[in-house]
TrEMBL record:
KW Kinase (keyword) present: no
EC number(s) per entry: 2.4.1.207
Free-text function comment from the UniProt entry: Catalyzes xyloglucan endohydrolysis (XEH) and/or endotransglycosylation (XET). Cleaves and religates xyloglucan polymers, an essential constituent of the primary cell wall, and thereby participates in cell wall construction of growing tissues.
Alphabetized GO MF terms: hydrolase activity, hydrolyzing O-glycosyl compounds; xyloglucan:xyloglucosyl transferase activity
Record's protein name: Xyloglucan endotransglucosylase/hydrolase
GO-annotated cellular components: apoplast
InterPro entries for this protein: Beta-glucanase-like, Beta-glucanase/XTH, Beta_glucanase, ConA-like_dom_sf, XET_C, XTH
Pfam family, one: XET_C
BP GO annotations: cell wall biogenesis; cell wall organization; xyloglucan metabolic process
Description of post-translational modifications: Contains at least one intrachain disulfide bond essential for its enzymatic activity.
Length: 287
């Protein structure tokens, strides 16, 4: 497939979108999102242009977008809780509904750790209810020290997960060219949460949440949504939507992606042949 869209336009458009968003009045949480749990005025603290999700012994918290979407660039600015956070999971993700079962899902999951140890960023993709597609990273910065950008570009060509403009995961849509290949195409909703993952998140569940260190607080910003609402009539695959023009990474992004995988990735399901009895998922041969 050919395209007249110059590869460097991806960087230019992403930068332009950031500049425009910085110049425009910040979108408040209530415009596009609603609380799901922890909506007691404490565990989900809505400050308008920032939401704090707080976890203690009594509850965690979560929110979701009001609408479902069929394509877009999904962008959230996040700052994680600092210090001892073993067992604490902060998540930003897309998911079909119902959220569990035969669903598709695209996850950023930040897995807390003990003092002095780095937080792990785990990404995962569920297709038709099947996950087990984890890729785990130690980031090149402390995600608890400041707010950083986390993005999911999802269109009919590819799914790209980015951290501060750097792609860390790519899933190409080869469903029409590789029999049996899977790619998320169903409408998805934006969700975010903080919750107790003591059973698995830190050292495979050996280190639990220390409630004496609670509360744990994650901050979320940027609540405008650059995406196509899945209303049933919206052409979410239209080439007129700017995020649908991105069919591939730019050369610079490909180099950055290769660097991240070689230096910062600590686990890749596509390398874990024994886990799949030496029958790796089909996408491992293409991405």
């Amino acid at each position: 497939m050919t395209s007249s869209f110059h590869p460097w336009s991806l960087v230019l458009v992403l930068l332009l979108s950031i500049v425009l968003s910085l110049g425009a009045p910040a979108t408040v949480f209530d415009e596009n999102f609603v609380p799901v749990w922890g909506a007691d005025g404490y565990h989900l603290a809505n400050q308008g242009t920032q939401v704090s999700l707080i976890m203690d012994r009594n509850s965690g918290a979560g929110f979701r977008s009001k609408m479902m979407y069929g394509s877009g660039l999904f962008h959230m600015r996040i700052k994680l809780p600092a210090g001892y956070t073993a067992g604490v999971v902060t998540a930003f993700y897309l998911t079909t509904e119902p959220e569990y079962g035969d669903h598709d899902e695209v996850d950023f999951e930040f897995l807390g750790n003990v003092d002095g140890k780095p937080v792990a960023l785990q990404t995962n993709i569920f297709l038709n209810g099947q996950g087990y597609r984890e890729q785990k990273f130690y980031l090149w910065f402390d995600p608890a020290a400041a707010v950083h950008d986390y993005k999911i570009l999802w269109n009919q060509h590819q799914l790209v997960m980015l951290v501060d403009e750097t792609p860390i995961r790519v899933l190409k849509n080869l469903a029409g060219r590789a029999p049996g290949y899977q790619f998320p195409t169903r409408p998805m909703r934006i969700r975010a949460s903080i919750w107790d993952g003591s059973s698995w998140a830190t050292d495979n569940g050996k280190i639990k949440v220390d409630w004496n260190r609670a509360p744990f607080t994650s901050a979320f910003q940027r609540f405008n949504v650059d995406a196509c609402p899945a209303t049933g009539s919206a052409p979410c695959g239209s080439p007129n939507l700017w995020w649908n023009k991105f069919q591939d990474l730019t050369p610079a992004q490909k180099a950055a992606y290769k660097n991240v995988k070689s230096k910062y990735m600590t686990y890749n399901y596509c390398d874990d042949k024994a886990r799949f009895n030496y029958h790796l998922p089909l996408e491992c041969s293409y991405n």
